[in-house]
Amino acid sequence: MNKKIHQLLLSSLFFWICCLFFPFGSWGAVDSLWSQANAFYANGQYSDAARLYAEIEAMNTVSAELYFNMGNAYFKQNEPARAILYYERAQRLSPNDAAIAYNLEMAQLRTLDRVDTVPEFFLFTWVRNLRQWADADTWAMLSLFLVAGTLLCLSGFFFIRSVRLRKLSFFMAVACVLLTVGSIVFAFYQQREVSDRSQAIIFPAVVPVKSAPGNTGKDLFMLHEGAKVTIIDELSDWQNIRLPDGREGWIEAGNAERI
Amino acid sequence: MKESVYEIPVITGKSSFWGLMFASFFLLFFCSMGMAYADDVQFSVVAPRVVSVNEQFRVTFSANANVGNMTAPDFSGFQVIAGPSRSTSQQVLFNNGTVSQSQTTSFIYVLRAVQEGKYTLGAASIVVDGQTYQTQPSTIEVIKGEPQQAGQQNHPSQQGTQGNATTVDAGDVFVRITVSKSSVYRGEYLTATVKIYSQSLNIAGFEDVKFPTFNGFWSQETEAPQQLNFQRENVNGKIYNSAVVRRYVLFPQQTGDLKIDPFEITCAIQVRRSGRSMFDDFFGASTQIVRKHISSPPVTVHVNPLPTNAPASFAGAVGTGFKMDAQLTRDTMMANDAASLSIKISGEGNIKLVETPKITMPPDFETYDTRITDNSKTSTGGISGTKQFEIPFIPRSAGTFTIAPVEFSYFDIAKKQYVTLASRPLEIRVARDPNAGSSVMTGVNKQAVKSLGEDIRYIKTEQPKWRKKGQVFFGSLGYYLSIAVEWLLFAGLYAVLSKRRKEAQNVVLVRNRKANKMARKRLNIAAALLKAGNESGFYEELTKALWGYISDKISIAIADLSRETARETLQRKQLPEADIERFLQVIDEGEFARYAPAGGSVQMQKIYDNAIAAISRFEQLLK
Fold first, then answer.
1. CA-to-CA distance for B262 and B255, rounded, in angstroms?
2. pLDDT, tens digit, for every residue of B453-501?
């Protein structure tokens, strides 16, 4: 009887994992486009590769790898701003990828603006770095495993007769609960960051940032291609942006593409 | 003697110096009997380029050899007034013990222009030592001009400034910068000539000469004569004497309309004072020096930018007929030996500005500073020649290496397009350094892996896990369902396990209940055996009854049961120590008697009673 339960548990878990990793539907068309685009890239036909990658994206099919390759294709075509945009998108889907981080840095080297970020309290940085270890879905999966672990430990606590083991499983259950809460919180914040559409990349070579929406505003500073800004407000055709160093101003809509 | 500038001063009249010539001939015979004449005979003609109608002028044919007679060209269009008059001159030079001599023969004609037009003097020919030499044909332009001004140099009173001698006509003296091309590409050469023009050749001197700076150009002087060599030139139908002051080769370095600064000069001009009497003339006090500051009109050169589709190897070379040759001084060598790559670029254009072509040496080669040798000549036709780049290198490891083709691009002015020259790939075979081992032994010289370039990481080629845009697992129905399923599974597990525990507890209960009954049954059998006097059977059954009872009571399997486990379990159940001791003692006595029967039926009865008492006591304690 016990075995049967285990089997049931395992098979249902397997089912859910399958659902997550191999979503229903066939990706045949996408896969062939993918390999074609990669072949173009390997041949140095970067614009063709970028076109095919964009086609895949237009089919609403995405992945960190797709965004990464798109970034590469644009980088090779000397469009650092677009490359940065796609590397940023790739990084959102796969925050812990070293190659993405490296190429993003390479692309940022090509931009003109050096904006100093306001230094942050080190604990926040630590926590954020820990959170960046995985994307929202990975944290969500982890939380599922931790819930399962919590429940198993609870079962142990209820049904194991040995006092020592019962004590152990109790503490493990408590730890699992804490970890579950942690991973759910991380998943939530990761999720919020990914779906956050307020960050944007400047596309034109030079964009004047004005003190007010409209052409009457005074020019505050200039932003160049590839700069990353946060859009905090929008007023008709103007967007209120903020730089990582805290400066704010207004630019005309259409100059920045949201990540 | 205004014309003396373009006449050879050694020429002397035939009649006046006959005696001297004669003496020279003798000298020649004595000094060098078999001495050959100057080996190349040069035969040239000096004739004014522009004359005016009715002007008399001189045409001189001269050769640096002793020539008997000359076949004169056809002077049609001109009237021969005098000539030919032959004159010879000879020069003997003693220089550090060597004797050199030169001889000149001239044939002079005096012609008069009859009609306006352009006339070509054909070639004159002479025969020296059986060989025929010819002059280049020359063109003489005859214009309607003021013949007196240019033609009759000995009559300066024709100056035409009779009224006020101190004013100098602006047309009289002027300077001008002429450029060979007014529209060029950036880097394409052009020549700029600074010339001074004067009608009357009465310039006494120059002051405050300011040459143009040629901003925006890279300039090089090609001609800077010490003495002005005036030649006649037709300027707007007037005959001027012009002389080149400077000649430059220019390479524009900027695009757009480049303005060349004017050339400025202050001329000291001899002007005739208005003649008061003929005696003034005679005593030479009739001229006066007038200073006049003149500057050239501005010249603008339009410089077109080069087409934008420049190849990567283009570094500014512009010209025609460039050639490149890349060679290794040797292609087989040993590691740690030195060799060099030599690149020779030749052509016509801004060769001086050609930079070292980019060369990618194999990474393990050490390269040193390039040695550049410039063998270019600057002439009116631009700069031509050869520039050689020598790149010394030392291969540090053995192997066969290929130096990628050296590329050199230039903009071809004639074709108006970029031309890229490439050498063939250069292969070099490097053998192992035979001394390498010993040097490695003395000191291990490890080197860090050098970075040769930076690039982004390559694309990811593995099959990605596709997902729909915006599709997230966290917070989705699937996520909550998964959690629900987990809880359901837990609930199921809990239910099953708790039911089983309940059942197991029931089993214990049953066994507990049955314990008394089972013990009684066994004790009854034991009592029968007691009566029968079967001693070993009795003890066996008695101990079994006791063990079985305790096993059922504390629900431990008989196999796992020992004296110690039983005592421990019972103690945990907080039974009085004395009772546990008594029970275990009964078991001990029973087992002892079973293997060493002694004491007979009395003893058996006693143990039997003790067993009954112990079980009854436990029955009370373990409810």
1. 20
2. 788 888 888 888 888 877 778 888 888 999 999 999 999 999 998 888 8
Please provide the size of chain A in residues. 259
- Span A164-171, average pLDDT: 91
Residues B137 and B174 in one domain: no
**What is each CA distance from A193 to A68, A89, A124, A259, B453, in whole angstroms?**
18, 11, 15, 11, 35
**What three-state secondary structure class fits B62?**
strand
Kindly give the residue spans of alpha helices, DSSP state H, lying in B432-562: 436-442, 477-532, 535-554
Are residues A20 and B473 in contact, defined by beta-carbon separation less than 8 angstroms?
Answer: yes
Distance CA A233, CA A217 (A): 16
B393 and B349 share one domain: yes
For residues B340 and B267, membership in a common domain is answered with no
Put simply, whether B453 touches A (Cβ < 8 Å) is no
Binding-face residues of B in 467-496 toward A, CB within 8 A: 467-475, 478-479, 482-483, 485-487, 489-490, 492-494, 496
- B442: pLDDT strictly greater than 70: no
Contact residues, A window 82-121, toward B, CB-based 8 Å cutoff: 99, 102-103, 106-107
Residue A121 tokens read as 């309290």
Q: Are residues B388 and B512 in the same domain?
A: no
Q: At which residue do the structure tokens 């049953």 appear? A: B510
Smallest Cα–Cα separation from B162: which of B270, B271, B274, B269? B274
ipTM of the complex: 0.75
Residue B125 has φ and ψ, to the nearest 5°, of -135, 150
Interface test with B, best of A35, A63, A86, A145 (most B CBs within 10 A): A63
Q: Does A64 touch chain B (CB under 8 A)?
A: yes
What is residue B273's DSSP assignment? P
CB within 8 Å of chain A, chain B residues 305-324:
none
In a domain, B499, yes or no: no
Number of domains composing chain B: 4
Rounded distance between C-alpha atoms, residue A194 and residue A93, angstroms? 7
Instruction: Give B467's contacts in chain A (Cβ within 8 Å).
Output: 23, 61-63
Give the domain range for residue B83: 2-144
Question: Is the residue at B537 inside a domain?
Answer: yes
Interior angle at CA B208, CA B207 and CA B209, nearest 5: 95
| B600 in the same domain as B516 | yes
pLDDT surpasses 50 at B31: no
SS3 B608: helix
Asked if residues B418 and B309 have their Cβ atoms less than 8 Å apart, the reply is yes
Tokens of A201: 């990349």
What is the pLDDT at residue B154? 40
Q: Tell me, what CATH number does B611's domain have?
A: 1.20.120
Q: Which residue of A has its CA nearest to B463?
A: A31
* A27/B478 Cβ within 8 A: no
At which residue do the structure tokens 């083991």 appear? A165
Beta carbons within 8 Å of A224's beta carbon, 6+ residues apart: A111, A112, A113, A202, A205, A206, A207
Nearest chain B alpha carbon to A76: B456
pLDDT value of position B371: 87
In-domain check, residue B611:
yes
**Would you say residue B24 has pLDDT above 70?**
no
Closest-CA residue to B232 (of B332, B321, B138, B150): B150
Domain end point (choices B385, B400, B435): B435
Instruction: State the pTM of this model.
Output: 0.45
Residue with more model confidence, A154 or B363: A154
Look at residue A99 in the predicted model and tell me its pLDDT. 92
Q: With an 8 Å Cβ cutoff, are A27 and B482 in contact?
A: no
Contacting residues of A for B474, CB less than 8 Å apart: 136-137, 139-140, 187-188, 190-191
- Does residue A36 sit at the B interface (CB-CB below 8 Å)? no
* Tokens 């009859």 sit on residue: B114
- pLDDT surpasses 70 at A11: no
